[in-house]
Amino acid sequence: MKIQFNRNIFKIYCALFIIGTSVLACSGNKEEQTEKATPTNENEVTLTDIQIKNAGISTGNIEVKEVNSVLKLNGKIDVPPRNIISITVPLGGYVKAYNLLPGSKVTRGQVLATVEDQQYIQMQQDYLMNKAKLGFAAKEKERQQMLNAGKASSDKSLQLAESEYSSIKIALSAMGEKLKLIGIDPNKLTEQNITRQISVRSPINGYVTKVNSNIGSFVSPSDVLFELVNPSNIHLSLVVFEKDLSKIFIGQKGIAYSNNDPSKKYNTKIELINTSLGEDRSVEVHSHFINADKTLIPGMYMNAEIILNDASAKTLPENSIVSFEGKPYVFIEKAKNTYVMTPVEIGESDNGFIPVYTDLGNQKIVIKGAYSILMQLKNIVEEE
């Protein structure tokens, strides 16, 4: 009997254990289901009084202020077409020598290259021979004039002498201009200084931007040996799209800076607005540098901020705006110690204030400690 009694007790204990375990499991499932059914707002956070005090959180309202808004543009440094010079050889020839590389500085009158060709010898020879003929023709004309005055020669002979003189004079003048074209002064040309080479000289002060030939190559009159640029009148060529064109006008001021040195600012002023839209619905706007220096090189890409007219706008302090995943947000006070992260559309900062284009009404906005709330909210989201 004693053994049977113990077995019954054991069976009772086992039954109670199974029932208890089932009840606890069901209770756990209900609690889990309850937790999962409770909705959570990942953009809402509630802080304690101590957290708010430590973070220095305070709220305020949107304020209407006068702000200078800016239009951000991109462009590159350019020069007027008249400041870009293509160097050619008017009559062609073989490149004998040059010592230039892109970026080399040149001065007006500097020899850029030496070119030679036998046609230069022929041109000088023809000029000197016609010059000698002109002297003879001049004396013959004078002789015929004297003979005609004394009735010793006919009018026809005089006319032929005068015609010959005029023809040689015209040919000599034309040959002289050709010599000037290749850089030879006909007034200084004699039989002792005939040369087969000519010097190609720079017509401006500037820099070499392109070198298109090599020593020994033949260049025709249409070939460009070098391209020079005069950087004395550089400007910033900006791209403005159609939607922003109404904001731009002549005389408008702005600042420009490069990505390499954003801290160095250059003052600019718009001088010309193209009236023709491109295929991408943009126009070219020329902005003049007020304080240009030698570090500005044609072709350099730059950023620009064009200052738009002063306007009244709803603003918040810069510290009110937080960035999360590349988008701007503010925290609105929903209830005591409870804040909701709300996306907003903003403008450019001016004197510590940022225009806010999203209608937030008269709600209380966190103006101090917004970043601390963002960190707390992110921690909560990560824990969940």
TrEMBL record:
Record bears the keyword Hydrolase: no
The UniProt record lists the keyword Ribosomal protein: no
Signal peptide: 1-27
Limits of the CzcB-like barrel-sandwich hybrid domain: 85-228
Keywords carried by this UniProt record: Signal, Transport
Source organism, top-level taxon: Bacteria
Entry coiled-coil feature ranges: none
Gene3D superfamilies per UniProt: 2.40.30.170, 2.40.420.20, 2.40.50.100
InterPro entries for the chain: BSH_CzcB-like, MFP_Cation_Efflux, RND_pump_MFP
NCBIfam families assigned to the protein according to its UniProt record, in alphabetical order: RND_mfp (TIGR01730)
PANTHER family noted in UniProt: CATION EFFLUX SYSTEM PROTEIN CUSB, SLR6042 PROTEIN
Family listed: Belongs to the membrane fusion protein (MFP) (TC 8.A.1) family.
Protein name per Swiss-Prot or TrEMBL: Efflux RND transporter periplasmic adaptor subunit
